[in-house]
């Protein structure tokens, strides 16, 4: 089994749950790296054959796109609101990414310097 071009060594249920209380699968790859996936996403993206990253992205994103469209359809969202909803989702994601970066760096973007970047890149783990 593969996910994209990475061969799967083993899988097991994770103790972690998704935000919506879904199951999570822990995947160990042949290279020794581990990654967790929403179990439904895992079913979409695993394959008996290797695939390129474009196909992997499509397998990952297209079912999610379908789910989003179902929600918008079910809520009977006026067509004139659809673009606004996507803009708001994008803005919210960007704000949350910025806040997470600030938290990880320990300082806001306007206080970070190239020295901070160099310190991170040259830090001995």
What ranges have pLDDT less than 50 throughout 5 or more consecutive residues? none
Strand content: 15-25%
- Given the structure, what is the number of helices? 4
The description of the largest β-sheet is: 5 strands, antiparallel
Spatial shape: flat
In N-to-C order, the SSE pattern is: EEEEHEHHH
- The helix-and-strand class reads alpha+beta
Instruction: Provide the gyration radius in Å.
Output: 19 Å
Q: Spatial order of the strands in the main sheet?
A: 4-3-2-1-5
Average pLDDT confidence is 94
End-to-end Cα distance, whole Å, is: 32 Å
Any idea how many domains? 2
- Count the E strands: 5
Percentage of residues assigned to helices:
40-55%
Give a quick precis of the structure.
With 125 residues, this protein is an alpha+beta fold. Helix content is 52%, strand content 22%.
Overview of the molecule:
This protein folds into two domains: 2-76, no CATH class; 78-125, no CATH class. The protein is 52% helix and 22% strand. It has four helices and five strands; from the N terminus they run ββββαβααα. It has a five-stranded antiparallel sheet with strand order 4-3-2-1-5, covered by helices on one side. It is flat. The protein starts with a strand and ends with a helix. The mean pLDDT is 94.
């Amino acid at each position: 089994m593969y996910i994209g071009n990475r061969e799967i060594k083993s899988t097991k249920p994770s103790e972690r749950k998704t935000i919506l209380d879904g199951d999570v699968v822990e995947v160990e790859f042949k290279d020794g790296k581990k990654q967790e996936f929403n179990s439904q996403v895992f079913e979409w993206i695993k394959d008996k054959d290797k695939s390129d990253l474009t196909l992997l992205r499509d397998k990952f994103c297209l079912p999610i796109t379908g789910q989003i469209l179902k929600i918008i359809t079910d809520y009977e969202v006026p067509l004139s609101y659809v673009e606004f909803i996507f803009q708001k989702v994008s803005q919210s994601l960007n704000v949350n990414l910025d806040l997470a970066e600030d938290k990880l760096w320990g300082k806001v973007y306007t206080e970070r310097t190239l020295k901070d970047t160099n310190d991170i890149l040259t830090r001995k783990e």
